[in-house]
Each structure stands twice: as C-alpha cells, then as structure tokens.
Amino acid sequence: MDLREQLVSYRPFNEQEEKDRDVILSCLDQFDDLYTRDNRTAHLTASAWVTDRSHTKILMVYHNLYDSWSWLGGHADGDTDLLQTALREVREESGITHVRPLSDEIFSLEVLTVDGHEKNGEYVSSHLHLNVTYLLEADADEEVHVKKDENSGVAWFTPEEAVKASTEPWFQTRIYAKLNEKMREVIHD
Q: Does the domain spanning 3-188 belong to CATH 3.40.5.10?
C-alpha cells in the first residue's frame, strides 16, 4: 500500500491528526518531490516513538538543532518506505541495532514547522516536515551512542519523564503526551 492509501485509511486520533492528514494529502497532490529535500516548501519525514520491551521507557535524543530532548527520526531522503526511514534513523541516531516495529501501520501523523537554520555551513530556509510516526520497540540494555553531528545525548526516560525532558511546549502537549496516550491504548488493547 502506498503512502496515500495508508493516509486515506488511517483513522486520526484527534483533530490535530485529522487536519495534519489533510495537509499531507494536499501536499502529496501538489508536489512530486516530497520524498527528497529538493522541495523547498515541505519534506516527508519519519519519526519513531521507541519503547523498551516492558513498555515502561521511551528512547530520546538530545537534538542539537532544537536544543531539546526529542524523539528520533529524519528525512526520507528518497526512500518511499517511511517505516524503513524511521528504523534507519533510530539506528543512526542512537546506535541501537535491534529495533523492530510493534506494527507496520502508521502510529501518528504530524505537520511540523522547521525554522530556518544552518546545516553543513549552508542556510536552510524555513519549511514543513510532513511527518509519519511509527511505534517501535528496542532493548533498553543495548549500548547507545550519540551521532555527534545531530545529537549530544541518548537516554531512556519513563513516558512521563520523556514529555517533561522536552523544552518545546508544543511538542510536550501536542505530540509527546499524545504519543504516550496512544501507546497506552495500543499496548493494553
């Protein structure tokens, strides 16, 4: 099933996801280069809400660009399989090699704003990340390491601590708290 079909069949969790799904579908209709960074307006990205096997911890990285603890994820960079993008990003950003999806289905949707910034000595204009999130599971005992060009810390938190560790209020209330709520529902169903 391609991304459009996945999005159409996805049941939004709340109003934010419903409206963001509409934006992502609209962008898919307008642009044919969203899987790369060639589009100057928006890029498709994939994030991961990574829990441990007991589902009592969440893996976070201290993201240098945002100066905050955050989930793991990144650009599709040409890969049309966003689940594979999320898995790749977790491995790259945390050093964890044994990570698996709890489901192949989309876990959450977000349209994220990215302020203009410097990357590799070049200015990157403000743009949108059309983000698909997956719920992944990893072993909390596996050794982690930072990806120095992107983050300066990798750590496990309780779900509640993960929300509080972020210094970005919008992410705390609109994204991370929502992901925890959804995870509790999925794990206990």
A: no
